[in-house]
Amino acid sequence: MESNKSILIWKLLNLIDSDKRLGVDGIAENLEVSRRTALRYIRTIEAAGFPIFYDRRDNCYRFPDGYSLKKVELSRNEINTLFVSSQYFSLLGNSFKQSFDETRQKIGDFAGERTRRKLKSPVIPFVIKAEPVEDSPRVKNCFDTIVECYADRVVVELDYETMWSGKRLKREVAPYGLAHYDGRLFLIGYCCRRKEIRTFSFEGIHGIKRGRTSYKTPDNFDLQRHLDAALGVDYGSGETYRVRIKFSPEAVKFIKHRKWHKSQKITYEPDGAAILSFKIAGKEEILQWVMAWTDNAEILSPDWLRDEFVVRLDRIQSIYKNTAVSTDSIHV
Q1: Number of folded domains that form the chain
Q2: Residue 43 sits in which domain range?
Q3: Which of 15, 39, 62 is the last residue of a domain?
Q4: Cβ atoms of 176 and 223 closer than 8 Å
Q5: For 68-96, what is each residue's pLDDT tens digit?
Q6: Residue 156 and residue 140: Cα distance in Å, rounded?
Q7: Which residues face 275 on adjacent strands?
Q8: CB atoms inside a 10 Å sphere around CB 117
Q9: What's this model's pTM, rounded to 2 decimal places?
């Protein structure tokens, strides 16, 4: 009889640990006991120190968030993934890193013995050498507010400054997703003012708060597919064009093993040079990208992009021409 009671109490603990959300009547039905017996078993596990409580909103007994009877066992690949993830969250700033470390600690608390031993074993140093985002409470507040509004499907209200024009306006934006690119965070969403999907950099957000208007993300919207046309996150008007860039023989070894864009194609010239082509949208990112290759890259087409690049070069030349420093004034 006592053995049967122990089995039923263990079954009750597993019921509470499940997603069934049962009240006293539901527990009694599942255990095939009377309501009075079910209540007695509940009091028994409370007295044993298990942190159960009655959730009046869902009318059920449950454990606090983060508590579970189940022991997590992770494979070596899963532990490596966890470790690499911690390096990435470091790029997002201390607030994100702290939240991730707390999550990792909880995983350790509920891990089985084998996983705990693996977590203590040496892990090869791995550094993600990428530009970190701004580490500030402002950025964390922006991130948390956007995530919360997305979950509740309400717009965010932004006090936003367009980075290039400097214009500062109030915007209502329906969040469709977030992107981390080149050390910056971006909100991609439907701008109620412009009546189109736009990209908003976190640097331009001077103020943010939860809006009141509800929204629905289009069923056919996919964030990855939406950004596929861009080299990074700048897709301009969304109109795509074919870019052809010639790289010097010295630069070829640096590009032939890299995947810059999913549409890219590489052809090789007899002199060892290579022509990289891809179909993209937006112009600012591609201009800055080519600029980084200095004299090792030449835009072949389209003509308008080549002309825009020449204008940029002329501006740079005029800056250095007007600010030339005489070698006579340099002292070592």
Answers
A1: 4
A2: 2-62
A3: 62
A4: yes
A5: 776 667 777 877 777 777 777 777 777 77
A6: 15
A7: 246, 267
A8: 10
A9: 0.66
